[in-house]
Specification:
alpha+beta; 44% helix
Length: 258
């Protein structure tokens, strides 16, 4: 009887050890699977983040190159504008009519005198005298003061009532003084200059949304046009990023964020 009991006990122990071993193996496999899945998830997430960061860098570079190209086109035309033409309406009109390419690149092209009075503007309504002054505009004052090309902050146009950005070139007289300002405006709502670059992210139902900000954090392009001209920090998806960026002094070439 003792032998039978001993044998039964040993068999019971073996079963228990076998079950315990099986459970340990299952637990080990489960932990391994969880670890592998977690690592795969992290790796996949990092790949996606790296890809999106690369896309953002390429888009930023493309926008910068476009603005540089616009500045060069404006500068090339401004070099052909003699200061004396600012006091000669027929000559100034002839010069403006000779710039059809600029009309396809900008929403409007204009010439203002040193007093800020806009002499001529060429937009979808044609070439005309707008009878308005830009003397109080920061971009105009900065162009006169610094005697160099300027890219303005986002502002509201007095002509169209839409948000816009202005690129300017000083018109220099023979004595070196700034005789006037030659500029081109870019509408940011009805005719965004970034539309063809950002249209992949303009779908409201897309998981990827493309938002363009200027160096001050102001929204230049957004799927919802009501966001244009607003502070990007008010956008929930950008709030933490912009707060960190500004806390570090708003570097012109920040690193990528997730």
């Amino acid at each position: 009887m003792r032998t039978d009991r001993t044998f039964s006990s040993l068999r019971s122990l073996k079963v228990r050890f076998a079950l315990a071993g099986a459970l340990l193996v299952l637990a080990s496999v489960a932990l391994t699977v969880i670890f592998v899945l977690r690592e795969v998830g992290r790796s996949t997430e990092q790949v996606v983040l790296d890809s999106q960061e690369d896309d953002a860098r390429r888009l930023a570079a493309a926008i910068s190159l476009r603005l540089v190209g616009l500045q060069r086109a404006l500068r090339s035309a401004a070099l052909q504008l003699p200061a004396a033409a600012l006091d000669d309406p027929p000559r100034l009109s002839e010069f403006m009519r000779a710039q059809p390419v600029l009309g396809t690149m900008f929403s409007s092209v204009f010439v203002a005198g040193a007093d800020g009075e806009m002499l001529l503007i060429d937009d979808e309504k044609g070439l005309r005298e707008p009878h308005l002054s830009v003397a109080d505009r920061d971009y105009f004052k900065e162009t006169l003061r610094e005697r160099r090309p300027i890219v303005s902050r986002v502002a509201m146009s007095r002509v169209t009532g839409e948000p816009f950005v202005v690129l300017t070139m000083p018109v220099l007289a023979s004595d070196g003084r700034v005789a006037g300002v030659f500029g081109g405006s870019l509408r940011l709502s009805s005719r965004s200059p970034f539309a063809d670059l950002t249209q992949g992210g303009e779908d409201r139902h897309s998981m990827v949304v493309t938002i363009v900000l200027d160096a001050r954090g102001q929204v230049l392009s957004h799927p919802d046009r009501d966001w244009v001209m607003r502070d990007g920090a008010a956008e929930p998806r950008l709030a933490a990023v912009l707060q960190d960026w500004r806390s570090r002094g708003s570097p012109v070439e920040p690193g990528g964020y997730a």
